[in-house]
Amino acid sequence: MVTPIRFLLLALGMVCFSHIGYSSFNNNVYNSDAIVQNTDREKVYLHMDRSDYYAGERIWFKAYLVQAGTNKPLATNEIIYVDLINSKNKVLITRMLQTELGSASGDLKIPVETTKGMYTIRAYTNFMRNLGNSTFFRKNIRIGGGSQLTSEKVFTGEKPMAEIKDAVLHLEKPDLRFFPEGGNLVNGFINRMGFKSVAPDGLGTNIRGKVVDGSGKTITEFASSHLGMGMTSFIPQNGEKYLAEIQYNGNTFTYPLPNALVSGTMMHVFDRGAHYNVEIKSSRSKGVNGLQLRASQGGEKISTSKIEGKDQYAVVTLPKELVKDGIVQFTLFDGSGQPICERLFFHHSDSKQVGMETSKWQYGKRELVDLEIKVDEDAADFAANMSLSVSETALSAPRMGNIDIKTYLLLTSELKGEIENPAYYFNSKDPARRKNLDFLMMTQGWRSFIDHEVEELRFPRENGITLKGRVVQSNSRDKAVPAQVSLAYKNRMEAGYDVFETNEKGEFEFTNLHFKDSTSIFVYANALSKKNKRSKKNRGSDPSFFIELESFSTPEVKVMESLPLRSKEVDYVSAFPVMLPEIKPFNVDEADLIRLKEAVVTDNKLDKDANMKRKRKAALYTRPSYSLDYEQFRKNPIGNALTALQGRIPGVNVVGEQVYIRNQYDKVPFYLLNGFPVAEQTIFDIPVPEIDFVDYIRPATTAIYGTNGAYGIIAVYTLDGRERFYKEQTPMENGVGTLSYVHPGFANSKKFYEPVYNKKGSKRGKADFRRTLCWEPYVQLSPEGKVKVSFYTSDFPATYQATLQGVTDDGTPIHAKAIFESE
User: Fold this and answer.
1) Count of domains in the chain?
2) Which of 64, 172, 451, 728 has the greatest number of C-beta atoms within 10 Å?
3) Strands (E) located in 591-683
4) What region holds the TonB-dependent receptor plug domain (predicted)?
């Protein structure tokens, strides 16, 4: 129900959004399929703790599911899929999350043997697949370290909009395109055109040039303002052809301008402070008479106006009070209701709903940080779902860290093609920011027509896991077998059983299942008599049939070469405080895979001692004091990753997840994983079956590690074999009419580990290598609209950034930042 206040505002809009001389509201104006469809679309956004990781670390994320038009959270409890994709466009890991009230939190453990390079995190729902992969959320992350990747191309998984950039990396000159405002140039009027210039490297490049007619006469000059984008205007004449001429790297290049219409209609949009003016010009015989202008936002109409009069010119006004932050779509229709002009304009109020600040600017190592979050408006009217991350700012390079929930929901997810540095349009203090944002709307937001095509909805919304398939004859798989199919499943926390009777096509379907974590699945079928399927006497096993299970197919990963990093952008990750040798004692290829010399294999496995020696080459020590083979524990796992050390290595005591040296709590070892320093918690996260062996190095022989190795070193080495993490687990036939396999189920998010250093007896000698200091997926405010979040700094002296992201119940994205330093 519309409240009286909102109804008054709508009525005011109907009056103000009108031709100067006449206004008429019409509810039966052209009903665009694209608009109706937009209200039913979905968007997924992932708030991640950072953008740069090492192999073996954990990615923490919060998924937000919203309606595409309004950005309001969807309370449909749908399934969200999160994929980790490598640079070869292969999906390595998939997580399934069950949303609740429009969100879900999760994590993803990066396998320790993952090679360094650029990767992509992708998130989507099954329903989003109906509109293609371009609607999926994508974010580039980097796994590894160093600064040698600054010139690499970054994979995003989708080809940019063809009108903007199509295979520009192979051009010898800039790709310069012109976009008439509203859709077309019209002879005899002052026309405005947006333009964008893209350099051969795929990045926007600023240019200067001029427009000339057929005789070579200069009509007007133009210059780009930001990333190759700008705007120019001129009056085209009948019978003339126009060219754009620019100078680039000492060469002259020319480009044809779009042809102008002899008779047509055009539309310009201007920001006039408290309102927007839409200027309409038409050289038709009827002028502007009978034209209809509609303003909409997020698939909802703001107002519609019908213009009457025989003039060639009209001005329509839209008050800004009727508009919220985001893209406003102005569409002009002719008398028959067909769209003839369209223009996107971005409304940005710069309003701030939530603020954050720390108790002070600088902190010491392992010092408590108090971060206060406060609503900047009436707390009684504020309701939002929010998440908080605190990580080192160096871990968010400009090319990877400039996507937040506000820029994504309001801008990048609404336009085609990749947008260079979208955060600039929201956060920059450049006085030309708003003007440049409009140039973005005139270029990458340009439309010459409206696409009415509605794709078939082949993928339904998923509120639970679905297992379906067919029972068919073994010698003729296109022939169905009526059967009763039984499903049994079991995992560490739950078990269940269900029965389904196939239809005439032999099809069965178990829906709305909710598995937690990896679950063992057993499917069994009993053939039924065709004469009396329900008669128990006629039920029994038939050796001539088997079960075909339909598995979930991952959406295609589209290949593209994305925009490269600019040379001035530094893309790096802070190194651990240990100097590692630059020259590795083994050969490493471009994919960072270790290439070993040819070896003789006996009994299908390498010599154990030779294999250990090979793996230790990644570390700095030469010989361990003690070594423990984990083969016996892989067959019969015992406790956590280091429990086996208790009583087997002298001087090392393990109590739960605490390791002590010589029974003294303040003497804790330094940890290595496959030769590289890691935090203690990373070691305990490793499953026992993945460990090959563990070395212990006494303090007396650890001088090469400096003070970090003062209390000894524990070095853990994992098994080789990348295929163990990436191979597909497919159903296995156990006999006639039976299948068994492991289903991944919904991912259970682990609790983020945060140490407490003011606790009596805390182990001060343990090295703290945390790069994410705090991860809180659900931030709860008090009734007064405040909350204080506390956490400790690590041993890294660095600048840290606290990032709060979320969305209100009415669909307003929230993004706030706070910066502090740790010495």
Assistant:
1) 4
2) 64
3) 594-595, 626-629, 652-655, 658-661, 670-673, 676-677
4) 626-712
Q: Is the domain of 664 the same as that of 704?
A: yes
Residue 692 in contact with residue 787, Cβ under 8 Å?
Answer: no
Q: How far is CA 523 from the centre of its chain?
A: 35
Q: What is the pLDDT of residue 372?
A: 96
Question: Do 256 and 298 reside in the same domain of the chain?
Answer: no
Do 597 and 722 lie in one domain? The reply is yes
**Strand arrangement of the beta sheet that strand 786-792 belongs to:** 354-358, 368-375, 786-792
Q: Which two tokens stand for residue 464?
A: 């639970």
User: Does residue 35 form part of some domain?
Assistant: no
Q: Which residue range is the domain that position 308 belongs to?
A: 4-23+271-347
CA pair distance 223, 439, nearest whole angstrom: 12
Strand, helix or coil for residue 636: coil
- Which CATH number belongs to the domain containing residue 612 in this structure? 2.170.130.10
Q: Do 602 and 712 belong to one domain?
A: yes
Comparing CA positions, the residue from 621, 664, 688, 693 lying closest to residue 764 is 664
Structure tokens belonging to residue 144:
């590894």
**Mean pLDDT on 619-627:** 86
* 232 and 186 within one domain: yes
Residue type, 10: L
Distance CA 603, CA 418 (A): 53
Residues 6+ apart with CB under 8 A from 360: 820
**Torsion angle defined by CA atoms of residues 421, 427, 429 and 431, in that order, rounded to the nearest 10 degrees:** 70
Rounded Cα distance, 710 and 699, in Å: 5
Choose the final residue of a domain: 239, 261, 283.
261
Band the pLDDT of 25: cuts 50, 70, 90.
very low
CATH number, domain at 218? 2.60.40.10
3-state secondary structure at position 455: coil
- Using the 3D structure, point to which of 680, 703, 726 is the last residue of a domain: 726
Q: How far apart are the first and last CA of the chain?
A: 56
**Average pLDDT over all residues of the chain:** 79
Same domain, 606 and 687: yes
Q: What residue type is assigned to position 414 of the chain?
A: E
Torsion of CA 71, 74, 80, 84, to 10 degrees: 20
Distance CA 553, CA 563 (A): 29
Strand partners, 373: 356, 787
What order do you get walking across the sheet with 507-513 strand by strand? 507-513, 465-473, 545-550
Distance CA 386, CA 804 (A): 7
Residue 243 lies in a domain: yes
What does the DSSP assignment read for 471-495?
EEESS-TTSB--EEEEEEEE-SS-E
Query: Is the domain of 232 the same as that of 314?
Result: no
Do 237 and 285 fall into the same domain? no
* Closest C-alpha to 298, from 17, 14, 71, 42: 71
- Report whether pLDDT(296) > 90: yes
Question: In terms of pLDDT, which residue wins out, 49 or 377?
Answer: 49
Q: What is the pLDDT of residue 549?
A: 84
Distance CA 569, CA 147 (A): 11
Tell me, yes or no, whether 279 lies in a domain. yes
Q: Say if 396 falls within a structural domain.
A: no
Produce one character per residue of 244-269: b if its CB has 16 or more CB atoms within 10 Å, e if not: bebebeeeebebebbebbeebbbbbb
From CA 7, how far away is CA 15, in angstroms rounded?
Answer: 13
Q: Is the dihedral of CA 310, 314, 317, 323 positive or negative?
A: positive
Residues 209, 217: Cα–Cα separation, whole Å: 13
